[in-house]
């Protein structure tokens, strides 16, 4: 039933030791700025589009890539930080523990937002926005809440040049300020359920930080709802963890385990915390989303009451639930490999990259022309496509670069392909010749169908692979329980 | 030319005196919670759908609306605050000067975001995210920047329970931290132009606040770009103020005046500030968006340099530009009237509200059924439609309520309408009988075309009315200059 209690999760939840990472971060950061030259055992020659481009691809430029990623098996954390730096997903902010989310990383977050925003609205939630400054006294109103959050607070003590009379907390989460407002908005049962969500930044003064996984400031959505009955609140908490679960499986291709947190790990102020936990490539678990049944804890602390149908005043029953930019870290650590990032097509900012290949100048125009046509065809059918037509890099360098960025499909077009009206398509998830198919007709309806089909295949294949990996390291019994819940 | 200098703007920019507002805010806030009963000179009887519903509409419930809005002509500021409270656009946060943006107000902001986000991406900008905590020393690096912003800063001095070694500023704007990062990312001319945008919250410790117009914390987008030449930067600054201008005219139906700020009003740290200024219903101007040519000011302060094609190191040329939730205030104050909010269809969260009308219980099913069909037809054609089928309110109360919420079109369906297969449609912008058309066929293609046509008409009509109002109070010469610029 609903009181799933997967106590065996607890051991999974110890965060990966990040002390070592913190120590080596500066080095890793430097690595990016000082280009190192290390020959790469490149497999590009085997991957080039057609024989005529072999020379081009094999030339010396290719053998000296500017980027180096620590092998995943050698040092998982170093690999993780290298991928983030090289794929330009994020960078370190000037304040310790803060992170700048760069465009490519932010685009993954936008894809997450786009999907969840629709689901939240479909299930009756409205977006809104609460101020981030919370009077210090609010945090103290709910006993276990202050205990949980007070060590992690950033506090504003000066405003407009003056010492403030009451210190302000920069929101670590918004239950207190939400309840302060709910108390003013909720009068009768007719005002319930009240179901809202906000996309916002939150601040938690973490000592050990790691990009995406744990940063001083992060982005998230936080849902907050108030209901007339405990059953409704429980159903809502379950509904939202279910939406998160489906999102993880269907969009991120991450086979999370859904369950309930142990008492000690329950959210500070909640009665029950449901969680989705994902297994990373280093076999450590990552809490990837939570949904809390808050009971009447915050309602009592803030006097959030309603008049029921019989005229009796009662406290509301509440939930809150959140997914954050940490999820991007989960995607990197679930699917990435030694070549870098590997993105599930449904969340990839670029689903298909087109690399035109020419040797002689008189081939260039025809190749670029064909590449542009292919781009238009795919774009019109709603596929996120990029044409990398820069002159400054060799095709081999581009192959390497876009593989590292995790783009699911690559289309190669050379002069011979133009002549035969076909293209070469390579899958990111299957390296080398095996993932490469020659002679796919450029004919629009054929090409579109082929690409869409392959993207679906990759999406499924990533999930299957992650499930197999997970099942290899977890007792299958556990999943039977979970699967019945999901 | 580009050096447009509309010095006569300056007198427009003095903010509406908000001291008086601040004094009366608590009263206004209270007004909402203590329902006052004041008979309204209701014109509902004249507006009811068909004769058979007159009784229903005229009944006593209708004459005692729960909401009271101060007439606009009597006290513009009181009217403004009443509209915000009654239409549930926003509420006061617990910290002085902060604002909670409620779902209906936030939905207007989402419509603004949706439009601008597409335009920003079309013009080559990528979204990303910078941390909101900025080392205090950063703010001091650009001389006029610190002078402009230091009186308005919120400062974090405690983190994780400890006094911080360096105080942190909660971003009032992000030029400093952006330049800190740009300096690390930009190496050569190949890295330029660098064009990014972020949607974020910002904090400015304002003493006189007013919902949407001036709050301690607000939401905005801030664009930041770096270029190789001053011409490129100037073109970018102009391009963005042009996008804002088009947005204001075409989406918000606000005939802004585009020009350049005087020296004293130029952004702290910029060389030139372009602005769009809107005239509110009280004939006061509102700065509704700005685009700054920053020259090399921040580049010099932060050492943001690139190597040009000749191998010479040079400072980049930059711009920044922003539109904030203040724009929602501009929409309220441009179009609203004594009945409340009036929203331009293109930004309205609800474009059409359907009010079913029945007297006898045996009429209810047929009326609701027809209302649902109409809703489906409109929804499928992409129109934002709401069916208000609640039992708790009379049709007259609903007419009043949705007019106050500024919904552009109302569809009324009664039993006789069902019998004749038609509906009654009323325009928000034309009160009473004049704005009401009977006997519009329910036939899907006809209804869809009629509604879309009317929404376009209302959009144009709001703009025309606002232009006429503006031109009545401004010297026409001024606009000739502006129009040629726009």
UniProtKB/TrEMBL annotation, chains A, B:
Catalytic activity: tRNA(Pro) + L-proline + ATP = L-prolyl-tRNA(Pro) + AMP + diphosphate
NCBIfam families for the chain: proS_fam_I
CDD domains in the cross-refs: ProRS_anticodon_zinc, ProRS_core_arch_euk
Keyword set, alphabetical order: Aminoacyl-tRNA synthetase, ATP-binding, Ligase, Nucleotide-binding
GO terms assigned for molecular function: ATP binding; proline-tRNA ligase activity
EC identifiers of the protein: 6.1.1.15
Top-level taxon: Eukaryota
Identification of the protein by name: proline--tRNA ligase
Ranges for region Disordered: 41-61
Gene3D superfamilies: Anticodon-binding domain (3.40.50.800), Bira Bifunctional Protein, Domain 2 (3.30.930.10)
GO CC terms, sorted: aminoacyl-tRNA synthetase multienzyme complex; chloroplast stroma; mitochondrion
């Amino acid at each position: 039933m609903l009181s799933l209690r997967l106590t065996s999760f607890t051991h999974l939840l110890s965060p990966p030791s990040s002390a070592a990472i913190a120590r080596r971060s500066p080095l890793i950061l430097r690595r990016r700025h000082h280009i190192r030259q290390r020959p790469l055992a490149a497999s590009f020659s085997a991957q080039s589009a057609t024989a005529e481009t072999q020379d081009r691809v094999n030339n010396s430029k290719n053998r000296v890539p500017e980027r180096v990623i620590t092998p995943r098996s050698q040092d998982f954390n170093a690999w993780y930080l290298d991928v983030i730096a090289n794929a330009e997903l994020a960078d370190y902010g000037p304040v310790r523990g803060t992170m700048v989310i760069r465009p490519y990383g932010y685009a993954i977050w936008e894809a997450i937002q786009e999907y969840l925003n629709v689901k939240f609205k479909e299930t009756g939630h409205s977006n809104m926005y609460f101020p981030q400054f919370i009077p210090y006294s609010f945090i103290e109103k709910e006993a276990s809440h202050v205990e949980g959050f007070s060590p992690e607070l950033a506090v504003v003590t000066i405003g407009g040049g003056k010492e403030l009379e009451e210190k302000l907390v920069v929101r670590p989460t918004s239950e207190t300020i939400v309840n302060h407002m709910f108390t003013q908005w909720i009068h009768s049962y007719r005002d319930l359920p009240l179901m809202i969500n906000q996309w916002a930044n939150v601040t938690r003064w973490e000592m050990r930080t790691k990009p995406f996984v744990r940063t001083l400031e992060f982005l998230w959505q936080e849902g907050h709802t108030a209901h007339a009955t405990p059953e409704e609140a429980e159903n809502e908490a379950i509904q939202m963890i279910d939406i998160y679960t489906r999102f993880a499986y269907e969009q991120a291709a991450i086979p999370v385990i859904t369950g309930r947190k142990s008492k000690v790990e329950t959210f500070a102020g909640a009665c029950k915390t449901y969680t989705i936990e994902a297994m990373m490539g280093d076999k450590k678990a990552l809490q990837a989303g939570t949904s809390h049944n808050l009971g009447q804890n915050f309602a009592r602390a803030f006097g959030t009451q309603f008049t029921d149908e019989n005229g009796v005043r009662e406290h509301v029953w509440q939930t809150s639930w959140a997914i954050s930019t940490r999820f991007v870290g989960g995607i990197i650590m679930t699917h990435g490999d030694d070549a870098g990032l590997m993105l599930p097509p449904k969340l990839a900012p670029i689903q298909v990259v087109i690399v035109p290949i020419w040797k002689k100048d008189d081939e260039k125009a025809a190749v670029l022309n064909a590449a542009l046509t292919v781009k238009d065809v795919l774009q019109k059918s709603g596929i996120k496509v990029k044409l990398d037509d820069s002159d400054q890099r060799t095709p081999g360098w581009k192959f390497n670069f876009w593989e590292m960025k995790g783009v699911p499909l690559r289309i190669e077009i050379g002069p011979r392909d133009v002549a035969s009206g076909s293209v070469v398509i390579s899958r990111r998830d299957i390296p080398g010749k095996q993932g490469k198919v020659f002679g796919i007709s450029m004919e629009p309806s054929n090409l579109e169908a082929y690409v869409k089909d392959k993207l679906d295949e990759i999406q499924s294949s990533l999930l299957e692979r992650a499930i197999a990996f997970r099942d290899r390291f977890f007792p299958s019994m556990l999943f039977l329980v979970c699967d019945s819940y999901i």
